[in-house]
Amino acid sequence: MTVLRITDLDVHYGLGRRRRQALKGASLEVRPGEVVGLIGETGSGKSTLARAVLGLVPASGGRIVIDGEDVSGYRNRQWRSLRRRGVVQYVFQDPLRSLDPDLPVVDSLIEPLLIQGVPREEAVAKARTFLPKVRLDPELLDRLPAQLSGGQRQRVAVARALITEPKLVILDEPVSALDAANRVGVLEILKDLRATGIALVFISHDLGSVAGIADRVAVLYQGELVEVGTAREVVATPRHPYTRLLISSAPTLRTAAAGRAEREALRALLTA
Amino acid sequence: MVRRVLSLTAGRVSVAILLGIALLAVLGPLLAPLDPLAVSDDTLAGISGSHWLGTDYLGRDVFSRLLDGSRASVVGALEVTLMALVVGAIPGILSVYLGRVFEWVTLRVADTLIALPFLLFAVAITALLGNGITQAMLVTGVLVSPLFFRVSRAATLAVARSQYVEAALISGASLRWIIRRHVWAKVLPPIAVALAQTLGVGFIIVSSLSFLGIGVQPPEPTWGGLLASDLGYLDYRPWAPFAPALLIMATVWASNLLADAIRDVSGEAGRALLNSRKVRANQAAAAGGTA
């Protein structure tokens, strides 16, 4: 049983002559309780993959199966009812922009429940039980997002994603907008989540920040999934030149970063 | 929002003036001491105890005409504004959400309306539909509506692509939910500003149309109509245009003041302004306590 199965997914943007392919035949499986790191540079199609899974961009080919449900041909109404069940949730990169600046954070936090039709009091009570999980002070609930720190805001965003008890949470660079201390804090929370059986897809441009937490790593390069394997496999024996370039660019993963000549050779190989 | 606007002096002053004008519109015709349409031999009289603002070229009491005409002027301005609001703001918000065809059509209609010279168009429409205050005002409202269309569309666009709207979408929110919960609060302040501005413009439009003889028909008085007839007799009563002009000006000014007040207290900037005022008040209170 998989939480998410993507088969030969194609996504195109634009029309006519400006039409270009953002994803080419991507296939990926995510099992319950698994953490999958999705790595790639800017424009490689990471966010497109996530948005296709959420139904925010239409797929032009291939299949997406979420929790046993084939959503490939879904129309708006079907998407809405699927989303309302809260099976898949999403955490944005920038926590300042993902919370409505005019609403107290409690309103943003319980919004998914309110959309489901849960009465407000019940939703607030549930939100309070969720706060310890993300290490947030209940006092913060009545504040506006601008009165919270970046780390606190991101924890609110994580709590919002968890409140519907999803089976899969996609995190789009969840810590890249945070400072080191908050980064560790949020990563700790995500590690706790693994124990609860929620599957996580952790999107990042940086292999180093994902390797420590991910069970498996998928590497996207120019719209193609060039390498999928366990984190250890991918780091120890990368097969694709791009993955090798990624690893050699991260000094923490090896005793020393690759030499300039080696990196240039790998770049030349990729552009060939 | 109302409480925030009233916390500003400008807000209180403008609301007081507008309430006064509204009261005038409701009670004006009843307060008129003399029949506003009654003609007498006493033409172009100066200010006196029996005629507070003198009489016009037909010997009618100007003060009574001014009071009696306030209702038509205010109702006309309101008609223009509300028509523009309904015809402009709702398609403006929806143009962002209802797909490309709707968007294209509404944008082109708005462009077309902007391009039409409104006085000529109003004249043409009243020729077509018959000359009446409501026809004239509704047509004018449609012509002013692109302002609301643009303002509400721009404000909605800024919100529509935001991540918190997307977050709501991912949780299965309907269009109605998103508009009510996220879009409305952001679009309302600029619309309120446009509303107050249009109210001011509405008075001028009612006045200029009745100046041209469109809309309210003589001998029924309006502020603009009074101004027009007074201008013809400047040789005899040079001070006469001041009373109607002052009323029009005060209303327009109060509307603009209100628009400014709404803009000042809304959104992030408004919150900052009110906070700084609160801080200053606290500091003053603290200083007073120690003194």
From TrEMBL, chain A:
Keywords: ATP-binding, Nucleotide-binding, Transport. One of its GO terms (molecular function) is ATP binding. Residues 4-247 form the ABC transporter domain. One of its GO terms (biological process) is peptide transport. InterPro entries: AAA+_ATPase, ABC_transp_ATP-bind, ABC_transporter-like_ATP-bd, ABC_transporter-like_CS, Oligopep_ABC_C, P-loop_NTPase. It holds the Pfam family ABC_tran. Coiled coil: none annotated. PROSITE patterns: ABC_TRANSPORTER_1 (PS00211), ABC_TRANSPORTER_2 (PS50893). Belongs to the ABC transporter superfamily. PANTHER family: D,D-DIPEPTIDE TRANSPORT ATP-BINDING PROTEIN DDPF-RELATED (PTHR43776:SF7), TRANSPORT ATP-BINDING PROTEIN (PTHR43776). This is ABC-type dipeptide/oligopeptide/nickel transport system, ATPase component. The lineage of its organism: Bacteria, Bacillati, Actinomycetota, Actinomycetes, Pseudonocardiales.
Automatic annotation (TrEMBL), chain B:
Keywords: Cell membrane, Membrane, Transmembrane, Transmembrane helix, Transport. It is found in: Cell membrane. GO terms for cellular component: plasma membrane. The keyword Transport applies. It comes from the Bacteria. The keyword Iron-sulfur does not apply. One of its GO terms (biological process) is transmembrane transport. Residues 70-259 form the ABC transmembrane type-1 domain. It is a multi-pass membrane protein. The chain crosses the membrane at residues 12-32, 80-102, 114-138, 158-179, 191-216, 236-259. PANTHER family: OLIGOPEPTIDE TRANSPORT SYSTEM PERMEASE PROTEIN APPC, PEPTIDE ABC TRANSPORTER PERMEASE PROTEIN. Belongs to the binding-protein-dependent transport system permease family. This is Peptide/nickel transport system permease protein.
